[in-house]
């Protein structure tokens, strides 16, 4: 897990495989769009920085994080991708919905990773408040979208 001492957004560029022949699907949730839009920007910029062609990065939106499971599954079935990235942001509220959504998405994506031919990269921010999310989508803890892009390239090469 990234911390201020281990912030994967600062990585050794020489260790990342070339992504110019790779194709990526990204599913992004519309809930907390300020956060998920920044995650998406980071992911796309980082994929392109490592050689991925814009036409080989396909982005689909879903209403909320819970729908990321369905979106990723459809991309796995129909996309022909080397890896799929999911991006979402769940922020704790007053009711237990936070736990149900986070557990549901985590279990769903974990299951997909064991049943799919390709890796699905988990970019779900699960934070206690908005500031913690902002800190992780381009703030003091980097951008988890960047890190998901690096993970996708590495796992596509796995
Ligand atoms: N989706 C998110 O991506 N982030 C959230 O913080 C979030 N909070 C929700 C809170 C409640 C009470 C409900 C009912 C839904 C929330 N959703 C959130 C939407 C959820 O992921 C999903 O889109 C809907 O439940 C429809 O399946």
From TrEMBL:
EC id: 2.5.1.78
Residues noted as binding 5-amino-6-(D-ribitylamino)uracil in the record, renumbered to the chain: 31, 65-67, 89-91, 122
Positions with a binding annotation for (2S)-2-hydroxy-3-oxobutyl phosphate: 94-95, 136
Source superkingdom: Bacteria
Recorded catalytic activity of this chain's protein: (2S)-2-hydroxy-3-oxobutyl phosphate + 5-amino-6-(D-ribitylamino)uracil = 6,7-dimethyl-8-(1-D-ribityl)lumazine + phosphate + 2 H2O + H(+)
GO molecular function per UniProt: 6,7-dimethyl-8-ribityllumazine synthase activity
InterPro entries per UniProt: LS, LS/RS, LS/RS_sf
Pathway where it operates: Cofactor biosynthesis; riboflavin biosynthesis; riboflavin from 2-hydroxy-3-oxobutyl phosphate and 5-amino-6-(D-ribitylamino)uracil: step 1/2
Gene Ontology CC entries for this record: cytosol; riboflavin synthase complex
Keywords: Riboflavin biosynthesis, Transferase
GO terms of biological process kind: riboflavin biosynthetic process
UniProt similarity note: Belongs to the DMRL synthase family.
Role this protein plays: Catalyzes the formation of 6,7-dimethyl-8-ribityllumazine by condensation of 5-amino-6-(D-ribitylamino)uracil with 3,4-dihydroxy-2-butanone 4-phosphate. This is the penultimate step in the biosynthesis of riboflavin.
Alphabetical list of NCBIfam families matching this protein: lumazine-synth
Name of this chain's protein: 6,7-dimethyl-8-ribityllumazine synthase
Organism of provenance: Leyella stercorea DSM 18206
């Amino acid at each position: 897990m990234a911390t201020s001492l281990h912030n994967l957004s600062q990585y050794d560029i020489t260790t990342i495989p070339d992504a110019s022949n790779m194709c990526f699907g990204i599913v992004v949730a519309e809930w907390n769009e300020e956060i998920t839009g920044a995650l998406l920007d980071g992911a796309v910029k980082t994929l392109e920085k490592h050689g991925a062609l814009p036409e080989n990065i396909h982005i689909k939106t879903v209403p909320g994080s819970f729908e990321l499971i369905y979106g990723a599954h459809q991309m796995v079935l129909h996309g022909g991708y080397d890896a799929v990235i999911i991006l979402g942001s769940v922020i704790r509220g007053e009711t237990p919905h936070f736990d149900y959504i986070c557990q549901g998405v985590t279990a769903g994506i974990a299951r997909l990773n064991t049943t799919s031919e390709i890796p699905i990269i988990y970019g779900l921010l699960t934070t206690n408040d908005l500031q913690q999310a902002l800190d992780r989508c381009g703030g003091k803890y980097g951008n988890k979208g960047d890190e998901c892009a690096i993970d996708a390239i590495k796992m596509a090469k796995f």
